[in-house]
From TrEMBL:
Organism: Stegastes partitus (bicolor damselfish)
Span of domain Protein kinase: 12-262
Family as reported in the entry's similarity comment: Belongs to the protein kinase superfamily.
GO CC annotations, alphabetized: cytoplasm; nucleus
GO MF annotations, alphabetized: ATP binding; protein serine/threonine kinase activity; protein tyrosine kinase activity
Entry protein name: Protein kinase domain-containing protein
Superkingdom of source: Eukaryota
Species lineage: Eukaryota, Metazoa, Chordata, Craniata, Vertebrata
SMART domains attached to this UniProt entry: S_TKc (SM00220)
Length: 288
């Protein structure tokens, strides 16, 4: 399987290896029967991976009722066996959103990210409507169809963690730590809203170029969430107050300093207010 130009199953000639993981590899293949270039996820024949593959295929079968293009979900072409390995056949897409950001820019403008987020939200909405949640939403699992096409068209991929909403058990912790909702990290009951939490984190990451809640353990992420939630609301409130179009209602610099966003600062530098009556007014400087 490691050799390029080897054949998977009866008709999939391997042209390149697109990625790998503990489960196996994703290969770029040419189907000699159709001459189509596809992406084949090759899952190793170990028992734990086989169970995961069977569950993923079950989810993909349920997703077949959705239109791939309209719903922004990768097209699934079926599966086949290569010796003891299970091979899942998908349409070939260009690159992950993560790679797109790393290769072009670290963040997107509002105009660029709006259609991307709309498409991802569309995919989640359709999935949730048929009782499936993704459970591992992140930029790595959002594929750009064609990096040269604008606005960007994206599709959701990788349903290895996806589960029917009705069978998810409390206490299950799946997905990638940075994008896990707090209720999952705390072992509390959860539902498809965990996907919406991940979508919100992706929104922030696309806009700022930074992962909002980094952490190597659940405690770290929860701590970031607790510290950041109130600050976020106050920060947004401050931005809105400074960007008010009505000049009469736009806050003054002194009101900025008095805003609750700064209330948690442990050290304050108090500056006297200049007073023209006491000689402390504004001075006009001239070049020498």
């Amino acid at each position: 399987m490691e050799e390029r130009r080897s054949t998977l199953g009866s008709c999939h000639v391997v042209e390149d290896i697109l990625g790998d993981g503990s489960f196996g590899v994703v290969a770029k293949c040419r189907n000699t029967k159709t001459n189509n270039i596809v992406a084949v996820k090759v899952i190793r024949g170990k028992e734990c991976f086989v169970h995961s593959a069977i569950a993923e295929i079950a989810v993909l079968r349920r997703l077949q009722c959705l239109d791939s293009d309209t719903c922004s979900i990768v097209q699934w072409n079926g599966f086949f066996f290569d010796k003891e390995n299970i091979c899942i056949d998908f349409e070939l897409l260009d690159q992950s959103l993560r790679d797109y950001l790393d290769g072009t820019k670290s963040r997107l403008s509002v105009g660029e990210l709006r259609p991307v987020l709309h498409q991802v939200a569309t995919a989640l909405s359709h999935m949730h409507s048929i009782g499936i949640m993704h459970m591992d939403l992140k930029p790595d699992n959002i594929m750009v169809v064609d990096r040269h096409q604008h606005p960007l068209k994206v599709k959701l991929i990788d349903f290895g963690m996806a589960h029917p909403i009705s069978v998810v058990k409390q206490g299950a912790c799946m997905g990638t730590m940075y994008y896990c909702a707090p209720e999952m990290l705390l072992g509390a009951p959860f539902n498809e809203c965990i996907d919406v939490w991940a979508l919100g984190l992706i929104m922030a990451e696309l806009a700022t170029g930074c992962i909002l809640y980094p952490g190597q353990a659940p405690y770290d992420v929860i701590r970031f969430v607790e510290d950041d939630q109130s600050d976020q609301k106050l920060f947004i409130s401050l931005i809105k107050s400074t960007l008010t179009l009505d000049v009469c209602n736009r806050i003054k610099a002194r009101e900025v300093l008095e805003h609750q966003f700064f209330a948690s600062m442990s050290l304050w530098v108090t500056l006297p207010v200049p007073s023209p009556d006491k000689g402390g007014g504004l001075r006009q400087f001239h070049p020498t």
